[in-house]
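Progress against Task 2.4 (sequence-to-structure conversion) is shown through the following example record, which the project officer requested during the mid-term review.
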Amino acid sequence: MSFTGAMGLALTHAAKAGDHGDVPVGAVVLDADGFVIGVGANERELLGDPTAHAEVIALRAAAKHLGTWRLAGCTLVVTLEPCTMCAGAAVLARVERIVYGAVDEKAGAVGSLWDVVRDRRLNHRPEVVSGVLAEECAEQLRIFFAERRG
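Structure tokens generated for the chain above:
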């Protein structure tokens, strides 16, 4: 699956998060052959779990699918630039690549506010591809927050 196709799937999952009151962020994990092996959407409000970010849920699903926590060769595709927790989880999972749509200037940890994934002190540094369907990803978030503000 292409990065654009995977981001489209992530946007679909993000919309589901918004439907139950969570910030609409969706994530997909692709294996080395481009097949979907994990999906996730924010579920912090739904589950009352501060770690229930879309990326963490998708990474857990991918690890379960593969039967290992090492996601070497995999790509994490997410609608919003990962935060420090999620960027750290991607590094620890040894994903090969992080692809994201919208930039998160307030909490982004893949180049905006911080750059966790490129820190030379870490033993693994995934490739980063940013801006995939960025406008569509940002628009989904703008609409969600505009509706919340009333």
